[in-house]
Write a structure and sequence with these properties.
The chain is an alpha+beta fold. It contains 16 helices and 43 strands. The protein has a 43-stranded mixed beta sheet that branches.
């Protein structure tokens, strides 16, 4: 109910009072009974009011005043049939003598237990509207010649010394709002002194407002100046449940208020009907509300708000100026100034500036209800301070489809953010943040973590709902090990097996949802400085890495990533795709020196049996242990779980045990756990070369390849693959292995599964087999041999089921060996070893010269070899010797017989030939003689 309407109601009541007093004054002399007075007064009063009026009793005293009991004014019939106003007593005490001067001087006006029922219907019409006189512009003006009546006006020039209203009640029912619940102002008390229409007077008011639970208390005191329509009041209101009034302001705020207790201590001044000035304190306690953008059902509970304000309202311009509005909530002091225009209409707009001097983040986070925080904040703890915060808010408020526009800024001072999955990583943050309704802008942000420093800039969009980051990161990490040790090992199983040391620089751009790292998009560059990575299963392989790596969420790219071990080095150029799931690698490998021994030792997984302190001590020497490990320990198998790789390898020098390979280059690939080498080329020794295509199945450790070697020093090759033969053979090997296959690399696996087909030639070969040479010398009774040297050695080799099948030929100036048979990979021998000896060597053995020598003087001795390579057992094949000797003897006897027969026949038939004259022409006998010679030749 407005002030103007209240004054009109007061005027109506005064009119009724005046009518009653006037009627009483006119007829008091004639009628002293109550019934007579009521019969006269009531018709006039009802006519003036347009309402039914009932009075129980009227007592009139000419000298002192009027007392009326049980007065009731009926409600507008369009609303209800109950009374609009009732009062138990109406007492008017006045001065008699001023009445003679047409002045009404009232000493006391007392109303006891008045009850007023005010109602507004669905159309917005009040039940007292018919009681309010029409405005002057709507009334009919008096005739021009008629003087305005001054009787009534003089009557209203009254002075009221005191008004006292006791134990009143005002009920207000408003049907313009949904589900109306009457508001009851109870225990209404009003006291006013020296009331005047022309001069200010004092007034005090008190009441209780019935709420859902405890009633609110209201008190009002101050001065009222009716002539200037101004007030100067002090208001005190406590414990008011403002949820009952929410229908009147719920369109002004973007939330549904469920409950809150309001307390006000305010000074209120108004100047006419144009401006209202007010300042004071407002407390809202136990605020509960529903904020639909966060939750449509679950309420936010038990918030408190304290306000210290100074506000000026221009009612004509509908402009609310906020000089001071200091709010304290969630332990945060907020200072607001600005204005709200068109505050009575739906086009109301805000233009406010809010500022905070300093905020303790830890206290703030603890005081904010969880519903007001994004879900990710459940895992985050904040410490430190925010300062210099300023927020500007502009735009429509209420049902407008246009959103509020706000912007602000603030500084972070030593802010520490703990994210639960990374609780051991607590950065310290200093910098500036700017904010608006769409995003959070980060500027000049410095993040310190241990001895590392990171510069951060960018935006966080939708930060109150589902944050999306768009950030640039520049970081310098001088001690990577310290940070890596703080990363939770359960974040990824592989992290539990890796140790990292070194330093690096990172520049990166990140975009996406920080709550789901798998969806993040990022791009950046890392400069690695002497990084050491130790992977637990291969702990002896700890490479040192340096160089530059570019990366994004899809791939890693490097142009010059250098990796080194103790003696080996690698430079990687290429990219790794899909590295967060199933990596696909395309890298070219360049190396100056590659030592295979240390790499193989590094990729050999460490087992508990090899590292356990309780392992039993062996009686073998360290050399024996090393030899046993190198020959008996199986390598692999390996499961690369979908990893694929391709590229080229170019190494200036490769060392594998005693074998040195130069200018090594090949194309490689890894797919489905299968490694392939294509177009492998390398140089060996001074003039040697090799080429190969190969295949290795890492999950089954099966392999196959083709190999072509030219002029490779065989001693180097044997020292690597068959060390026990390295001291026996020497020379330059040329070989073409058309097929080599097998499974496993331990001694047992090689003997069981190795298969090989080879055509070879050994130039300048030498066999340093003293026992073999001595046995051959002793058996053949020829000069003692120490070594067997050959100009050429060639043949075919087939390896299968642990045996070498040999079909070869060794040639030198004095010997030709033609080994044929098998040599076991366990060094066992089963060979036919025909030895051909030159005439120069075999001339001292008459038997060999007489029976085993061919027509060129070379002696062939069939020897068989058994035993082992280092301890051969040589025997002469007597059957072959006997067969050859018998054949030789037969040929010799046959020749001797031919010569003997030939001489005998010639002597018998031609014994007189010498006596004939040679000049005599040949007879038929001569011709026959020549024919017989030719026959026995």
């Amino acid at each position: 109910m407005t002030y103007k309407k209240a004054m009109k109601i007061m005027s109506i009541i005064l009119v009724v009072i005046v009518i009653l007093i006037t009627a009483a004054g006119i007829f008091i002399k004639s009628y002293f009974t109550s019934e007579k007075i009521k019969g006269i007064v009531l018709p006039h009063a009802e006519k003036a009011l347009g309402r039914k009026l009932s009075i129980k009793d009227i007592n009139v005293s000419i000298l002192t005043g009027i007392e009326i009991s049980d007065i009731a004014i009926q409600d507008n019939p369009a609303f209800r049939s109950a009374p609009f106003l009732t009062a138990e007593e109406f007492i008017l005490k006045y001065a008699f003598w001023p009445l003679l001067k047409k002045k009404l001087l009232i000493h006391k006006l007392i109303i006891v237990k008045p009850q007023i029922f005010i109602e507004r219907n669905e159309k917005g019409t009040f039940n007292f509207n018919d009681l309010i006189p029409k405005s002057d512009t709507e009334s009919v003006p008096p005739p021009p010649t008629q003087k305005p009546s001054t009787a009534v006006s003089q009557a209203f020039l009254l002075t009221i010394s005191q008004i006292n209203i006791r134990d009143g009640q005002i009920t207000f029912a408003d049907k313009t709002i949904p589900s109306p619940s009457p508001l009851i102002l109870d225990k209404f008390m009003l006291k006013a002194r020296d009331i005047s229409l022309t001069n200010p007077f004092k007034v005090t008011l008190s009441a209780t407002l019935q709420g859902n639970q405890d009633p609110a208390s209201l008190s009002l005191s101050g001065k009222i100046d009716i002539s200037s329509q101004s007030t100067d009041l002090q208001l005190d209101l406590n414990n008011l449940d403002i949820a009952a009034f929410s229908p009147y302001f719920d369109q002004l705020i973007p939330l549904q208020l469920l409950s809150s207790r309001l307390g006000i201590q305010a000074k209120i001044k108004n100047i006419g009907m144009e401006k209202i000035l007010t300042e004071g304190k407002i407390n809202l306690n136990k605020i509960s509300f529903i904020y639909p953008p966060i939750s449509s059902k679950e309420p936010v509970k038990n918030l408190d708000l304290a306000v210290n304000y100074a506000v000026e309202a221009d009612l004509l311009q509908q402009l609310l100026k906020i000089d001071r509005l200091n709010l304290t909530t969630l332990q945060v002091p907020l200072h607001i100034s600005g204005q709200i225009s068109h505050f009575k209409s739906e086009t109301r707009k805000l233009d406010l500036v809010a500022s905070l001097s300093e905020v303790d983040l830890n206290k703030l986070q603890k005081s904010i209800p969880s519903l007001l925080l994004p879900a990710i904040m459940e895992k985050i703890t904040a410490r430190g301070k925010l300062s210099g915060i300023e927020l500007k808010i502009r735009g429509p408020l209420g049902q407008s489809s246009s959103p509020l526009i706000y912007s602000g800024k603030g500084r972070l001072a030593d802010v520490q953010i703990t994210y639960q999955p990374f609780s051991s990583l607590v950065p310290k943050i200093n910098g500036t943040i700017e904010i608006d309704q769409e995003k959070l802008q980060i500027r000049q942000m410095k993040i310190a973590l241990f001895d590392s420093e990171t510069s951060l800039s960018g935006t966080v969009s939708s930060y109150l709902q589902k944050p999306v980051i768009n950030l640039k990161v520049e970081s310098t990490i001088p001690n990577l090990a310290r940070i890596y040790q703080a990363i939770p090992s359960d974040l990824s199983p592989i992290l539990q097996k890796i140790k990292v040391q070194g330093s690096l620089d990172i520049t990166a751009h990140l975009e996406g949802d920080p709550a789901d790292p798998s969806t993040l998009k990022y791009k950046g560059e890392t400069n690695l400085r002497d990084i050491t990575v130790n992977y637990a299963p291969y702990s002896s392989l700890s490479p040192h890495i340096k160089g530059t790596v570019q990366f994004d969420e899809k791939e890693i790219i490097t142009e010059n990533l250098q990796t080194s071990l103790a003696k080996s080095d690698l430079t990687l150029k290429g990219k790794i795709k899909n590295y967060r799931k199933v990596p696909s690698i395309n890298l070219d490998v360049i190396s100056k020196n590659l030592v295979i021994d240390e790499i193989l030792a590094g990729i050999q997984p460490q087992t508990p049996s090899t590292s356990s302190p309780s392992r039993s001590v062996s009686s073998k020497s360290p050399a024996q242990k090393s030899d046993q490990k190198s020959t008996d320990q199986e390598i692999g198998p390996f499961d690369f779980k979908g990893l694929s790789a391709s590229g080229t390898i170019h190494t200036a020098k490769i060392q594998y045990k005693t074998l040195t390979i130069n200018d090594f280059q090949t194309a490689y690939s890894l797919k489905d756990n299968i490694v392939r080498l294509k177009n492998l080329k390398a140089k060996t020794g001074d003039k040697g070369s090799m080429s190969m295509d190969g295949r290795l199945n890492c999950s089954q450790m099966t392999y196959s390849s083709k190999l072509d070697i030219q002029s490779l020093p065989i001693q180097e090759l044997l020292s690597v693959f068959v060390p026990k033969y390295a001291s026996i053979f020497s020379g330059n090997l040329s070989t073409k292995i058309s097929k080599i296959s097998g499974q496993g690399f331990s001694k047992e696996k090689i003997q069981e599964n190795l298969y090989l087909e080879d055509t070879f030639e050994l130039i300048n070969g030498k066999i340093q087999a003293k026992e073999l040479a001595e046995k051959i010398s002793s058996m053949l009774r020829i000069a003692k041999l120490s070594d067997l040297e050959f100009d050429t050695m060639k043949g075919n080799i087939k390896v299968q089921k642990g045996k070498i099948y040999l079909d070869s030929e060794l040639k030198s100036e004095d010997y030709i060996l033609e080994p044929k048979g098998t040599i076991g990979l366990d060094s066992s021998l089963s060979l036919n070893l025909p030895v051909k000896i030159s005439p120069r060597v075999s001339q001292k053995n008459k038997f060999l010269n007489q029976y085993l020598t061919d027509d060129k003087g070379w002696t062939t001795v069939p020897i068989t070899a058994s035993g082992t390579v280092t301890k051969p057992k040589l025997t002469i094949d007597l059957r072959a010797v006997r067969k050859d000797a018998e054949k030789k003897l037969k040929e010799t006897v046959k020749e001797k017989l031919k010569e003997t027969v030939k001489e005998k026949l010639l002597e018998k038939f031609f014994k007189n030939d010498k006596e004939k004259d040679k000049s005599t022409p040949k007879s038929d006998r001569d011709i026959l003689k020549d024919a017989l010679k030719n026959l026995f030749k």
